[in-house]
Write a structure and sequence with these properties.
The complex is a heterodimer of chains A (167) and B (498).
Chain A lengths: L1 E2 L6 E2 L18 H17 L14 E6 L6 E3 L4 E5 L11 E2 L13 E7 L4 E5 L6 E3 L2 E2 L6 E2 L5 E4 L2 E8 L1
Chain B lengths: L4 E2 L2 H5 L7 H15 L7 H17 L2 H14 L6 E7 L3 E3 L5 E11 L1 H9 L4 E8 L7 H16 L5 E7 L3 E9 L3 H9 L9 H14 L6 E8 L7 H14 L2 E7 L5 H11 L2 E5 L2 H16 L1 E12 L4 E9 L3 E3 L6 E7 L4 E9 L6 E14 L5 E14 L9 H24 L3 H17 L3 H17 L4 H14 L11
Helix pairs in contact in B: 2-3, 6-7, 6-11, 8-9, 9-10, 12-13, 12-15, 13-14, 14-15
Classes of the chains: A mainly beta (167), B alpha/beta (498).
Chain lengths: 167, 498
């Protein structure tokens, strides 16, 4: 089986283009080389290109470092980690509570995004938040999973943080 | 109409002509184990097994075999008319405990010497035009249609046969089937067409087929071109049944839809029943070109009633069949044999087969499928000619990486776009708007990456429309469907240095 590096859809062996999103799996050929170049160009234009691994060991933990914060948070991943902010009125308490980092002022929704653990990857999914989630400068389409890589930059509203994988 | 079936019984059993009776018995035993209906549920396998059994009946009996050999010698070397080349996406598969996908690219190519022969000798057409003259055709559409009909009349010769039927609520024979002699009179008939009434495709098609049947003969390429801009109600099943009959009789259909209203699924089904094509014409101006192109390519026919039979081994599944070139068209996996239409003397016809291989930990060679293509060769008194290919692959532990053949990669890259578009529509039909939007967004991303900016724009617009209204526009839906399909017949824009 082969997990698509773009949309995390699990394809059968032998599939040459992701059946869900069309991402090519073999790169050296002319047709594909051009299309991949176009992708890279877009990511350089819009944000930082990361080259970290997408492989996430099941025993690893996730480190969340909010920009400007002194101490990073270390999380032992469950199947789903909800990112958001708690507030006094609703009883919603996300797994990662951004309220101490000024989340409300920065436009973070109560249930903003979720990190899901797959076979050997992590994916980030925006939960239809008010101000959107950006991954390395690219805005996510709500409810569409994207694979996370070590060192990725996530922006929820105006709140920026980085994700690191720790073995 | 009956014609001798040209076939090499030795090839069907997969043995050389000098094989011993023991060799022949053994070859039959192996083939029976692969394709006997008790062992293999595939429809194609059943067809292959009948061929194999018939071949064994002759070759397995020394006396019958002797007379077959003599007959073969007397007939002399059978010329080759067309060839079948099969390329798998991988030659060595990894031994895995999970199912995997294997693609086969089939290329059916006319043999060059034969093609040259045809260039000197035109095959006459028995052509029937079935044209929609419902009220919605009024104005530019009907004007262009008349121009196209005039040009077609002009391009035909005395040897050809032409009929023309126009239909709205009822069908009317404008030009009864006959030779194209008095072109002025025929053109005048075309001019009498007036737009009025609704769209009853079945009646038009029925009247058209009746006209076409009057000159139905193996000496012609028998074809009906249907052009409509509307939706027919209630009679679709009967039209499809008629198409099945037409396939048996040897009449092909090209179905063309103009504008946004017509039912593309219906026209697709209609065309695929006879191995024909269906096309979306987005502007009235394109009508003339589309019709003329179609008639011209009919005149290039070398082989008629081309049929494909795919018999995978019992543990392998056919997931899909798609005709890539010319005139890209999805094909039904069943019933077999699958009609492919006609083979033109100067063009290769290619089909992509998607198979699912079973989990397998055993290394070594294994058979995958037996594929044959049959067709009637117009320059050989319409004799039936068959080519056959038996495909095997190797299975090994961790084989070295292998780049898939470029033609497969190229075709699949484009076909994937068509499939995403299809999936987006499926999600929408199931009411999953979020998924449909996501798939359209993905489609737009991929289209942009392959330089198809216009289609990508359309996908983005439709994604937004779906997100806010839960609906695709008919124009957008058809443009994306036929636009992505058409990519298969176009070279990559980047390769042309765009």
């Amino acid at each position: 089986m082969r997990t698509c590096p773009y949309c995390a859809f699990v394809n059968r062996e032998g599939i040459l283009f992701c059946e869900e999103c069309g991402q090519p799996f073999v790169g050296s050929q002319a047709l594909l080389a051009t299309s991949q170049l176009a992708n890279e160009e877009r990511s350089t234009m819009r944000g930082r290109v990361t080259w970290g691994t997408a492989r996430f060991d099941r025993r690893a933990s996730v480190v969340v470092h909010v920009r400007g914060a002194e101490e990073p948070l270390t999380l032992i991943p469950k199947d789903e980690i909800v990112l958001g902010r708690s507030d006094a009125h609703s009883r919603i308490v996300p797994d990662v509570d951004m309220a101490p980092f000024g989340a409300a002022e920065q436009g973070v929704s109560r249930r903003h995004a979720v990190i899901r653990r797959g076979e050997d990857t992590l994916t980030l999914v925006d939960l239809g938040s008010t101000n959107g989630t950006h991954l390395n400068g690219q805005r996510l389409i709500p409810h569409q999973p994207r694979v996370l890589r070590d060192g990725d930059e996530i922006r929820m509203g105006k709140l920026v943080f980085h994700i690191f994988f720790k073995e | 109409m009956t014609s001798e079936l040209s076939r090499n019984l030795y090839a069907i059993l997969g043995v050389p002509a000098e094989a011993t009776q023991d060799d022949i018995r053994e070859a039959y035993r192996i083939a029976a184990r692969r394709f006997h209906p008790d062992a293999n549920p595939n429809e194609g396998a059943d067809i292959q097994f009948r061929d194999i059994a018939a071949a064994y009946e002759v070759l397995g009996n020394p006396q019958q075999r002797r007379s077959y050999d003599e007959e073969r010698r007397a007939r002399g070397e059978e010329p080759n008319y067309f060839s079948l080349r099969v390329t798998p996406s991988k030659r060595v598969l990894n031994a895995l405990e999970e199912p995997q996908v294997l693609y086969l690219l089939l290329e059916i190519t006319p043999v060059r010497e034969v093609a040259k022969q045809l260039q000197k000798r035109e095959v006459p057409l028995n052509l029937t035009l079935v044209l929609d003259r419902s009220k919605s055709m009024k104005g530019l559409r009907l004007d262009k249609l008349k121009i196209a009909a005039h040009q077609i009349i002009e391009s035909l010769s005395d040897a050809d046969r032409l009929a023309m039927v126009s239909f709205s609520d009822r069908a009317e024979v404008m030009i009864p089937a006959g030779p194209v002699t008095d072109k002025t009179a025929l053109r005048a008939q075309v001019n009498l067409m007036r737009a009025d009434g609704g769209t009853e495709i079945f009646h038009g098609l029925q009247a058209g087929v009746d006209e076409c049947r009057k000159n139905l003969s193996d000496h012609f390429v028998n074809h009906v071109i249907l052009l409509t801009d509307g939706r027919t109600f209630g009679e679709e099943e009967r039209a499809l049944e008629l198409a099945e009959k037409m396939a048996v009789e040897g009449i092909g259909i090209s179905a063309m839809g103009i504008g946004e209203e017509w039912n593309d699924e219906f026209l697709d089904a209609l065309a695929s029943r006879t191995g024909g094509t269906s096309t979306y014409i987005n502007s009235p101006n394109a009508v003339v070109r589309f019709l003329n192109d179609r008639v011209r390519s009919l005149g290039d026919t070398l082989v008629e009633r081309l049929q494909l039979c795919v018999a995978p081994d019992a543990d392998i599944e056919i997931e899909s069949l798609f005709k890539l070139q010319p005139n890209p068209q999805p094909l039904d996996v069943a019933p077999q044999p699958v009609p492919l239409g006609s083979l033109e003397f100067n063009r290769t016809l290619s089909v992509l087969v998607q198979l699912q291989m079973p989990p397998s930990k055993r290394s070594g060679f294994r058979t995958v499928a037996r594929i044959d293509v049959t067709g009637r060769v117009l320059i050989a008194e319409h004799r039936s000619y068959k080519v056959l290919s038996d495909i095997s692959v190797e299975i090994a532990e961790n084989p070295p990486p292998e780049d898939p053949p470029l033609p497969i990669l190229d075709a699949l890259g484009k076909l994937t776009l068509y499939r995403i578009q299809e999936k987006a529509q499926q999600s929408l039909q199931q009411g999953n708007v979020v998924e449909a939007t996501r798939r359209l967004e993905n489609l737009a991303t991929r289209l942009l990456a392959s330089g198809q900016d216009e289609l990508a724009q359309m996908a983005i617009i439709e994604a937004r429309r779906v997100a806010s209204t839960n609906l695709l526009s008919e124009e957008g839906r058809k443009t994306l469907k036929f636009g992505t399909r058409k990519l298969l017949s176009q070279p990559d824009p980047k390769e042309n240095g765009q």
